[in-house]
Amino acid sequence: MVIVGELINSSREPVRRALEMRDEATLLELAKMQLDCGADYIDLNCSALGDGEEATLTWVVSLIRENLEAKISLDSPNPETLLRVLARCEGKLLVNSITAGSQLLADVLQAAKDRQAKVVGLCMAERSLPQSPKETIEYAGQLIEAAQAHGFPVGDLYLDPLVRSVATEPASSGLFLKSLQAVKSLTQDAKTICGLSNISFGMPTRRALNRAFLPLAVAYGLDAVILDPTDELLMSTLYAAKALTDPVNGVAEYIRAYRAGRVVT
Length: 265
Description:
globular, 10 helices, TIM Barrel, alpha/beta, 46% helix
């Protein structure tokens, strides 16, 4: 399971202030804390800064790179920003994200291929969300075909069937799980990913919903997840769910996590 730490996101007011003030200590502490808790990638999102997004994203990538051994997830809804920042970056990267309907899909795949970066592909058109598993796999198929057409390794493509909040769509959990299962049936090569906390957006006691939803997604074959790795019970649930559903790697991952002090009750 690939774990992407979500905490350096400009939608969170304290993080936004830290980014605007170039508060290196706060941002490095957030990144290190997530790495220490088991994150494989540190997601960096500066989109709430508007016109300052690109410059700030470039700056915070350099800050993390120069001070920590960390893989970076470049997070922006703007593919043009992703392309320009990606061109300045080195090291292991995850490009988060591009939609199946984006006019710049080919450009992002080529740039990621040139940088040996992985890509999150959103199973949606430019602005419309799928309403059924059938629609989801149609978009997933478009992403896979685009990757193959441009020589991008399908194994480096992470398909996101899109988690939506139960606050506005009470049936969204079932829709996601069915869509995840459908996407997994397309090919053994492509991976799957989701933004876990979207399921609880707008709900009280969000962590309870996140912790309940994660093992369901794991059981349906989720390969990577964007989450808060500092939530010890959430991470413990993840390792336990993997141990019970993945006979090849899950138990060994659980034992390693336990010995590292990451499994709690």
